[in-house]
Amino acid sequence: MSEVLKPSDVIFIAGHRGMVGSAIVRALSERGHCNIVTAGRDEVDLLDQASVARFFTEHDIDHVVLAAARVGGIHANNTYPAQFIYENLMIQCNVIHAAHRAGVERLLFLGSSCIYPRDAGQPMAEDALLSGRLEPTNEPYAVAKIAGIKLCESYNRQYGTRYRSVMPTNLYGRGDNFHPENSHVIPALIRRFHEARIAGADAVTVWGTGNAMREFLHVDDMAAACVHVMGLADEDYAAHTEPMVSHINVGTGRDVTIRELAETVKAVVGFQGELVFDPSRPDGTPRKLLDVSRLAALGWTPSIGLREGLEATYRWFLESDQVRE
């Protein structure tokens, strides 16, 4: 398949300080891209339309990666639903519209597998979008991400832009958020088992029954997939998408139970105590496995196994400032 990205192209990474954005910066740099544009909030406020428009007029940008988002786990989604829907909608609208106004023809929007209905058939194919009710615990976030997909599709239809969307499964790795309350399941488990091991605790309690199934992708694999999809020639991308189903699932195609995940994290961290599950806490969606056949047909498959990825993530956590928070 042909490649359209050139090393000299100017690529703006919105959200470069986040786990995914920083991984994409690394992936592009490793591939020889030397004109990567990043900006902190002091340079551009993605929630402010005028600020974003001004930023695009000041930079001659060829491509955009929209990785900026407010993200979090079940607790954060339940606690801050208004912020999750408002901030994500505003970021997406501002960046996509400003990119179009500035003549940027190629943009990659990063969504989430939570866009699919709670009871979607497994594995979830791209055409399951809008076929049923969403999972209530993260509906505001999911609605915002669905809007982002439809923004890209609509601008493509009306203006002839080449905006693409990728829907990652659950991500983890270097740069993750290990906050005790607002983190996703893998960093939450790593921190909990690490602190329990240091404290000599007898047991660690995990939310839910442990029966829910989840798919996990290392962030470096996600970044590699993003660069691959972003660089595909139009004819290659179009051969595996449709005008109204233009997004691409990104995952491993394999899932594990939360119990299996917790047992693996426990082993990686070296915690010797008991593993306890609290069924009074929500499990969330029973299963979330992506159909990644479309991505495989486009020539990309992941390379980092779960145990390998967890070990690397724990090493990064031990070296990070978050271990002392």
From TrEMBL:
Keywords: Isomerase, Multifunctional enzyme, NADP, Oxidoreductase
Enzyme Commission number, as recorded: 1.1.1.271
Catalyzed reactions per annotation: GDP-beta-L-fucose + NADP(+) = GDP-4-dehydro-alpha-D-rhamnose + NADPH + H(+)
Short name of one Pfam family: Epimerase
Site note Important for catalytic activity, residues: S112, C114
Similarity section: Belongs to the NAD(P)-dependent epimerase/dehydratase family. Fucose synthase subfamily.
Function comment: Catalyzes the two-step NADP-dependent conversion of GDP-4-dehydro-6-deoxy-D-mannose to GDP-fucose, involving an epimerase and a reductase reaction.
Gene Ontology biological process terms, A to Z: 'de novo' GDP-L-fucose biosynthetic process
Pathway terms, separated by semicolons: Nucleotide-sugar biosynthesis; GDP-L-fucose biosynthesis via de novo pathway; GDP-L-fucose from GDP-alpha-D-mannose: step 2/2
Oxidoreductase among keywords: yes
Protein's name according to its UniProt entry: GDP-L-fucose synthase
Species whose genome carries this gene: Thioalbus denitrificans
Binding site for substrate: R192, W207, R214, D283
GO terms assigned for molecular function: GDP-L-fucose synthase activity; isomerase activity; NADP+ binding
Record: active site: Y141 (proton donor/acceptor)
